Structures are given as structure tokens and as C-alpha cells.
């Protein structure tokens, strides 16, 4: 498969080896062509600029939903169409670039090229839509549903694709548990119909209770998510407490046992497939490193083993990571060549990809800049006492007490001038703390990349200072207080309080763990975004303007039923849920989040009462995604 | 530590060894005295009869709550007191027996003897209560809270104690996450107060929205359980959709991240401590087997290793498990003595406890009794054809279709004579199936201990037959239909449908797994029973008769507010929740289940509006026990 070259003193070879190493380091899985032109194209392909550009245009493409009908901020159709065309152009360029990099036969087999279909379909849809709107016909932008697929299938969405694959692989087993679960719901519903249907019970609003089989199935299905507990059982309970046994048994079996079974099946499968994926990744990484070795290998003596010399290795590492320091590179070499021979074999070479991924923190004990500027003053007795005071535990405790006092002051009414002036005192104290710390600690290490809390503190305090100054300037000039700036000031003030967490070791550990699982949550966040986006697009096309929100002051009689006569007298209208609609992409997203949080989702669904099919989609959507997220968070959190 | 005896031909020694083996087999951990009297007392102590008696009296003691004030079925105070005295007497006898079995110094150090304190406290309480009621003073039976402790601390509740220990050990770590979680809730509440408090927003019922800090904390705490989503955010959402960001962030951090962190911490700790407990159990088991070996050991030749002969081993096994068959015992011996030497060493002896726990199923291929009675008929061509037909796959499929048809018929209106007569057809078909199977398969293996579904089928079909006959007899005699019998008939009819599950292999696997985790769930069921019982007792003393339920037909104006003026106009009264009260032990349990299921729990808690402290207990109770149960079910289900 790879070229055996004994005379390898060409620059291209180093490039090739560097690409193999860098692919291994970042777990890229692209079977690129090894011809010199393809290699240099591939280098360009992996450059950060085109990658960021693609992500940017995906974002632009997806955020077009904000400006298209039904819009949050309406823009003319030709404007959004033009922007979308531009996005499609960028994606096409990227794809053409990709096609040039990898061999032709590989390109056509690559499942990532669902992108091509998406782009073509979007173009067709845009043409049809343009033609229809030009002739004033009803037109539908159905291809908007395809947009999130770009996010999944673009070459960079590797992690997302992996998550998707894991879910897809778990589906068959989930399906069997789901069937059994549905069977159980149906049997329980039949029993409820027979036991309660003929008793002439009435629900709270006077309608007959448990007389229609399909309604019972729906009610009991909702009960699984506990959203209508205990209302659904109150009529039966009022008749006799024996019937509660039925409901308790139902909740026990379906909510606790079956939902846990879902969780267990998803968790087990996810773990199994993830393990398999990781194993494949490790194998691919090794394979790539072996190829890189084959490019650079040479034979020191006749019949001896193949090795890579230190000089070549250095040149390679310099190509792979240009920003690495000499000291760091020498450290890595000494780890590989532990016998100090000046060359390394295949086994030592292969671990380079992992070594490059290890973060090395260079700790330089630099003297404080003030010490170099005026040493006598900085090293004088009062200055050293100050340093000792600031480094003392008492200093931290004192500031914790100040923060707590500040919390109390924030909670009090800020109309009181004493309270509002105290804010200046607290701001001064916080600034003083930062200045003192800067005096004591070396500024560059204080603001190093890893001191999350120092950065957090300084940014919050400085922005609070700026916002407070702007606010009081506005006030003293025009007697006018901007609500927005005040809001920002309040948020910043409250955020300052979070700092207390850092001074308690146990809490810091928990917070750090939570921060560390951030990337994993982010991947699933993208996944959920994809699902939400698709549902929002479908929902908007189906339900836009079906439910209207009327302002507080509006006197329109339609306000009582959200502008839709079908909703007259429903719980949805009574609970004042009119704003939960699909009238624009923002409302749709918020509505979908509410459905995910589950409670009252059945009331929200009443707005779709006539459209059973979508309800079904939503139901299964909720069922499938709830446990997933749990699992995800659980998996990530067990690190603690 | 143990007696070295070279002349061991005493019966007492066999008893001692048998006790050690049986203790190891059932994981009992009692440091009993090794004197002959104590050993025979210990044998009696472990006999099934006294153990069952103790459990029976614990049940009687706990079920006294049904008859005591506030009672479901009122009994005079002297009657319940007498029964309780009897129970206490039984427990005391059991404890005295226990004290005789184990060495005096061990007895006083045993933490299980919390029982003694419980008994003494209960006696004191009963005396005080008796005296107070005799003088017509207000009296409180506070010692009822202690009753479930007997269930935990009785020597038999080993598994329950282990579960309790695991939870107790996990508490410190949970506590830190809980603190951080509460900190996050408080910070978010402060931010909500500052952002939304001054905007003059109104909730649905016109009261000011988010102006009181403590109310915000409570509302946001409820939001963590998703019980008041999305109502709590609707006023803010109606004002501006920016505020939903605040709520979405809050739900993400507190409901998803922190609740998952709780789950992870509890899961991890539970697993860790359970592993430790199991390790200790295994060590203790080995230790006991070594002791048993030491009692029976003898030296075959001078300087040779210590062994146990087959004769002694046989006598031991006969003592430990009298009901074991000779074939089974010989099988076990041949496993231990795999070299067929006639004696075994320590290593082979130690595994006896585990071997005895292995269930051996004896498969005897007996001919069908009909074959022995009239072989010509049974082996004739038509009879054999019948056998082949019944064993064919088509027979099962045919009956699955019949069951599905039956499901449809059950769902239809049974007033229709055609439908109600069809029931006889189905009953006949089901009976025919059982009879045919009995004709084909050997009855004793058909009704063997492990054929769960055969037993299930037969019992359901036969009882449905009996109930249907009684029902139609009653109907034809007096034209009168008993509602109770009809209910039973309906339940049995629907239960018959479950059988379909057995014929699909995948479903059978899932169901079998669920059945296998039954014992683990039972242990946690006991644990939850203990917690519920304590809360029910406390709740009944505090809230009995505070909320009254009025019959459907009652015209009392107090019906609108459940007989408590404090509840006028609350959601609790509006939703007709009057039956959710603490007026007797049954209602209390149902109420606690509802609280566990979470939804609307904040409305139910309104009934305790004035009693903040208990609310607090409940809240923490819910927080602690929700994840626990999840964990439990999860742990058990991951076997799938």
C-alpha cells in the first residue's frame, strides 16, 4: 500500500509523514491520495481557516431560519435565498476540494457524501419555491429539514457521527423493550376500561371517565411520564381506594421498571458500541503511525532493524507542530529514545501521536516584575508582610465573608440609597483583592491558561465596574436608567458570588469534573440541536399561526383562546400557554425544550389535537431522547 | 480460636460442623457460642418456624396502624394494645433466645440490639398513652415510628441492613453535591429576583411574580423536579423570550447536570460499598468453612495432610441438607473428590458451601402415565398424529391468533349477548389447550417447579372458568350481577392475554430477566416500606383530619375546600385532591406514593402550607429517594 523508498531525501516525504502523524494525533480518518499534489491539497484541506469557514457557513445556513417565513426578524425572500446560495457554494467548494484529496473510487463510496444529495435537493427546492412564489402559489421550503444533516455529515462532524452511529446501533434492542412496554400499556388500558368504564365515574370537568379505549391508552401513556399524576387517578380514588392499587402497580411496572430497562439497554449498547469505536480508532491510529514510520525509516547497518534518526524525527515534529518549544521536543525525544541511542525503532515511534497529545505545562519560576524594577521596595519588610498576609488562609476566608455579605446586600432592595452606595464599596473591595493578588503573584502565572477562576474573577469584576459606571453616568446625566444595563449589572453582581465555590476544595473538585465533561455534553448538545432543528422546521410548516399570542393590553376576544376557536375551553388556553407556539423558530425551540422537560407536555400537545400523526412523532421523540440524555450525563458524571 | 479435637466421634461435633457449613451457605454472620447447649439452641434459633413467626408478628405489629386511631377499621384501644403487647413479648423471647446463643460480651456490642431500645421505648409509650387516655388527656403514640426499625434490625433483615449501610456510607459525598446544588439554586433565585422582581409581572391568578426571595427559591426548587414546568416561566416568557434562556439554563444545570451528578455519586458509592460488603461476605464464608473443616479433620498418615473422609462428609451433608437426594450428594462428592481418593483436603472442602447453593435439576424422562395405562391407544397412529400436531409451531401460532381475537372481543361491549357468549367459546378453547398439552406432555414435568408459564396459564384459566360459572349462576338465579365477581372475571380475562409474550423468544428473555431481578427489587421495596411507614406515622399525627373528603352526593359547603378554610381557593381544592390526606394509614401510603411520583407534589404540599418543617423533611426525602430507586432498578437491569 505505501511506497517503499530508500532515497527519501525529498521534502514531500516529510510532508506525507507529518500528515500521517497529525491524522493519528487528531484521529482523522481520511484515505487521502499519496501523490505530492494531493498531499499539499490535503494539508490545505486540514488547515484551520477553511474548516472554520465551513462551520461558519453551516451556522449561517442554519440561522437563516430566523429570517425566513415565519420569521423572528423578517428579511425579503431574495436576500435569504442569496445567502443560502452562497452557503451552498461554499459547501460545494469544500466537497470538490475533498474529492480532489481522496481517490475517486473512495469518494463515491463515502457515506459522508449525503451532503451532495442535500445540496442538490436544496437547489431543486429553492428553484421550485422561487418559481411558485413568483406565480403567487402556495410554496413550502421543505429542504430546510435537511440543513442539520450538513452539520452531521460535514467531514468535521466526526464525534457527532459517532454518537449517531451508537444510537442507531442501539435501536433494535430498544425496539423490543419498547414493544413489550407498549404491550403492557395496552393490557393495562384494557383492564382499566373493563374495571372503570362501566362505573359511570366523571372526571373533574364532568366528562365520562375511562370509557374510550384510545383515550385510556393516551392517558396511561402520559402517566408513564408522570405528567398527569395524580389527576388521572383521582376520580377512581374518590370512588374507592382499591383502584389506586391498579395505578400504583401501573406506575411501578411502566414508569420505574420499563423506563429503567430502557435506560439499561441504551446504556449497555451505547457503552458496547463506543468501546468498539474506540478500539477501531486505536487500530487506525497505529496503522497511520506505521505508515509514517515506513516513509522515514532507514537501515543503520546491513541486516539491522529499521529505525528513524533523531534529525529526521526532529524535522517531522517541527512540521507536525510548529509551535512546540525546543525543550518540549527534546523532552519528547528523551521519552522515546530512553536508551539515548540517537535513533528509535518502530515501537517507540508509534507512540509519538499520543505523546504529542499530552499537555506539557512549563512552569517557570519568574521573579515578580516589580522585584526587578525596584527590588528594595518590593523586598522591604512591609511589602513582605503584605505578601504573607495575602497568601494567608485568613485572607481567603475574609473575602468569603465579604462575598456572603454582598449576597445579603444584593438581596435587599436596591432603591435604598445606602444599599446602592454599598455596591461601590464592594466593587472597591473586589478590585483591591485582584490588585493585591497581582502585587503578590507573578502576573503571567496569575493569568496563565489554566487559572480559570482568576480569569473569571477579573473579567466579572472589571465588567461589573464598567457597567456600574455607565449606569450611574446615565443616571446622573439624564436621570434615566437603562433596563438592559441594569440587568447586566445585576447578573454580573450575582455571578461574582459564584467565586465562593472556588475556596472550598470539595466543591472545586466537583466543579472541575463538571467542566471536564463539558466537551462530551457539547457533542450531545449538537445532536439535540440537530433533532430540535428538524422538529422545529416540520412543526413550523404544519402549525405556524395556528396559535396566536396576544399582548397583555390587547382587548381582542380571541385572546381567551389564543386566536384559534378549536382551543376554546381547553387547558392549554386556560393555563395561558398561547406563547407556546410554532410561529417562529425561537418559539419552536422553546416549545421543544418544554416538551423535553415533560411536565404538562400533554396539555401543550392539545394544540395539535387534530393532527395525530405529529403527536405520535413527538411521543416517540420524547421517549427516545429522554433516556439518552440521562445516560449521557450519567456516563460522563461517573468520573466523579 | 477453635477447638482442636483428635477424638471427634461425638454427635455434637457434627452438629457444630453442620452449623458452620449452613451459616456459610446462607451467609449468616452470628458469632455463636460453641458449647453443646448453645449449639443446639442455635440450631433451634435458625429453624424456619421461629423465623417465620417473628416475621409474622412484625407484620402484625406494623399492620396495627390499620386499626389504631386514625383507623381504616377502628378497633378499641385495649384490643390493639393487647396485640402489640403480644408482639413485643414474641420479640423479647426471640431476643432472649439470641442472647443465650451468642457470648454475653458479643451480645451487648451487637448493633442489632437497637431492638431492645425499641421494645423498651414502646412499652414506656404504651404505659404513658394508657394513663393519659384513661384520664382523657391528649395522648400521642409516638413509638409507632419505631416499628419499622424492628424490620430492619431483626436478625433476619440482613439484606435490608446491607442496603441501609450502603446508603449511609454514600451520604457524605451526596451531601457535598447537595450543598453545591443548593448553592446553585440560591444563586439562580437571587438572579431571578433581580431580573424579574422589579418588572411588575403577574402570575396567572394575578399575584405578583417573583418578588419574594423565599418563594422564588421554592418555585425554582420545584422546577428541578419539573413539576411546575412550564407554568413557572410563562409570565416571564410572555414578557420577553430572552428570559426563557434563564429558565432553560437553570433546568439544564440543575435538573440535568446536578440530578445526574446525584445519580452518579449514589451509583458509584453504592457499587463501591456493595463490592466491599461482598468481599467481606466471601471472607467470612471461607473462615466458617475452615472452622467446619477443623472440627472434622483427621490425619490419614503420620505427617500427611489433614483430610475429611467421605463417610464424615456424607454424614455432614445429610445433617446440613436432610432433603438432598443420594444421587445429588454423590454428584457433589465426585465434584469435590475429583481424583476419587475417598477423602478430601481443606481446599476441596471449603467449596462445599457454594456447591450446596447450586441448584441441581433432576431431569427424569418418564413415559406419559396414559402410555403405561393403555399403551395401544396412546401409541396408536391418530394419538401420535395429535401429539405431533400439538408440538408443532402452528399450534402455538394458532393460539396466539385466538388470544388476539379474544383481546378484540374483550374490548367490545360485553352487554351484547353475542360477545358475552363468545367468552364461553374462548374459555373452552383455553381449557382444550391445557388438556391437549397435558395429553402430550408428562404432567409432572408440565407442572414442574420451573415451568412458570404453565402454572400461570392453568391457574388463570381455571379461576376464570370458576368465576365465570359463579357469575352466570348468580345472574340466572336472581338476574343479579355481583360487581366484585365481574371485576375479578375481567381481570382474569385480561391477564390471559399476557400469555402471548411467552411465545416470542425475545420477550421471554426480557421478562425472565425482570423476574430474576425481583429479589433485589424486593429488598429495596422493604426499604421504601420502612421509610413510607415512618413518614406515614409522623404525617398522621401531624395532619390527621386536617383535610376531609366529602362524598360525591354530599351538599356540605365545606366540600369545596376539603373541610379546611385554609384551603379555600387553593389549587389543591380546585383539583379535587381532598382524598389526598393523612386521615388513615391507607391514604397516607397512597399520598406518599403520589409524592414519590413527583408531579403536582407541590400542590399536594400546599396542604401543609403552614408546617414548613415537615415540608422540608419531605423535600429532602424526595430528593434522596428518587435517584436511589432509579439507581437500584438500573443496577439490576443492566443484566439484560
Automatic annotation (TrEMBL), chains A, B:
Residues 53-273, 395-606 form the Ion transport domain. GO terms for cellular component: membrane. GO terms for molecular function: monoatomic ion channel activity. SUPFAM superfamilies: Voltage-gated potassium channels. Keywords: Membrane, Transmembrane, Transmembrane helix. The keyword Transmembrane applies. The keyword Glycosyltransferase does not apply. InterPro entries: Ion_trans_dom (IPR005821), Volt_channel_dom_sf (IPR027359). It is found in: Membrane. Pfam families: Ion_trans. The chain crosses the membrane at residues 48-67, 73-93, 114-132, 174-197, 209-227, 239-267, 424-440, 452-474, 513-535. Its main location: membrane. It is a multi-pass membrane protein. This is Two pore segment channel 3. It comes from Mastacembelus armatus. The lineage of its organism: Eukaryota, Metazoa, Chordata, Craniata, Vertebrata.
